[in-house]
Amino acid sequence: xxxxxxxxxxxxxLGAACLLAATLxxxxxxxxxxxxxxxxxQQDEINKGALCQQVGANxxxxxGQMAVGNERMRDLLKRHGFTLTLNPPASPAPGLxxxxxxxxxxxxxxxxxxxxxxxxx
Length: 121
Fold this sequence. Notes:
The chain is an all-alpha fold and 121 residues long. The protein has helices at 2-67, 71-79.
């Protein structure tokens, strides 16, 4: 009789431990899922920032190319702290015609100088 009571108490204790473990596992799973959603939102914000930076760099590069023949654009860029430099014409290879003049690749932006960033290959 004492043996049967002991076995019932062990079974009840193990059942309660399993129930507690299952409840804990559900709670931890939901907590982890909410953290993953938050990290996904943060990653989306980081990606948006990187895209905006790329668009801004491309826009400045295009403005720099436009400024080669447009004095108003050069003045606008200069007014906002950007400098424009042109590439010197390259000597053509033998037997080839010289290429058309094009603006030099612009140096990467420096926080203190405000230059126009180069194109990403």
